[in-house]
Amino acid sequence: MARKVAVITGGNSGIGYGIAQRLLDDPPYPHLTIVLACRNLQRADEARASLLAAHAAELLERDDDQATTKPDVDVQVLQLDTSRPASVLAAARDIRRRFATLDYLFCNAGILPASSIAYLRAAYYLFSAPHYFITSSVALNQVRGQLTPEGLGLVFSTNAFGHYLLIRTLEPYLFNRPADHGGEGDGTRIIWTSSNTSAHIGSMGAFRPDDYQHIEGPNPYESSKMIGDTVSTCLNQRYADKPVRSFITEPGTVASNIYAEIGNWLLSLIIVLVNYAFRLAGVAEMTITPYNGGLAPYYVAVESETELDPGTRYLSRCTRWGTPYVAELPVAADDDIGPGIMRQLDALVTKFSATESGKEEVAT
Ligand SMILES: NC(=O)c1ccc[n+]([C@@H]2O[C@H](COP(=O)([O-])OP(=O)(O)OC[C@H]3O[C@@H](n4cnc5c(N)ncnc54)[C@H](OP(=O)(O)O)[C@@H]3O)[C@@H](O)[C@H]2O)c1
């Protein structure tokens, strides 16, 4: 039986780590390689060691029957900085060299650079629109104007464009799956970790056609997530006759490192306590742990293809008592802006692929 391969960008912490834990605990295939694609190899190695140690302990706890059929799962690491095109192109080469094809690509790595809490705004929304307050980033002042050394918007490049460049660069490889790799209907599933904040773009005016990388504006995070959603929808149209499908998932609100820059342990503790309070009050988005947050992306990986619909958004949610479940919403695509965004991104793909002086093949 073929060995399946799951690449998780940003798999060393938070929701990416939670997805890896779930894949290890209950893999969709008996032979699976999980690849933590991370910008920092030391953190990736530490995450790999901790995942394997936890998994070994879990196997010891299982009864003898299960132990005799224990799955053959290994964990590898791969260098990938999604914000840097050269790193993305190198990672694509590495993936092609190591594996016959990819079965799952979790586009998960992401940043939300915030400089401070917007206390007045936070207080206003806490009392006037508490659900919006707790499920959006309205309480944060995001950093504006951050650029990569290549001159790309940092949040745009990290969260959205780097993943798009990786997918485009891998196209010829993904389209030509080995015939003996899995059964009929099997293909690559691209699984995005989106955010419910992208649903708030109307009210926050996040996406700006004249500043599509959102370098000047106050909401680069929401804009990048909206671009990821748009890319997913447009790729499904473009890949209609290819063995690749793209899915949008949401993790809910997770107490991860993503907010680490804004404060100290006390502030982090307060944020977690507030999240628990909202969960007890019935706000299902409060998944809080990375393992809970990883449920919807994991579900999209393990569910049979006939049960999945790329036109559905899969959401990790939690009961007030902490039991996670998957909810569904229709994907809300804006057909007016999709083609324009794809043109801009494709122009960047061409530009950065060309700088590799013919090392990469990008299908046109
Ligand atoms: N936490 C939430 O409530 C929430 C809600 C909705 C959506 N999300 C999304 O969930 C995803 C994961 O975030 P998280 O909450 O789990 O935060 P996290 O714990 O900070 O994890 C983010 C991961 O992305 C990696 N990363 C950041 N920049 C990268 C780059 N340039 N190249 C490669 N990897 C990079 C980080 O690596 P380092 O360890 O090296 O920094 C880390 O592994 C993000 O896309 C985020 O937008 C989170």
From TrEMBL:
Keywords: Oxidoreductase
Entry's Gene Ontology BP terms: sterol metabolic process
InterPro entries to which the protein is assigned, alphabetical: 3KSR/17beta-HSD, NAD(P)-bd_dom_sf, SDR_fam
GO CC entries: endoplasmic reticulum membrane
One Pfam family hit: adh_short
PANTHER family named in the record: 3-KETO-STEROID REDUCTASE, 3-KETO-STEROID REDUCTASE_17-BETA-HYDROXYSTEROID DEHYDROGENASE 7
Record protein name field: 3-keto-steroid reductase
Gene: ERG27_2
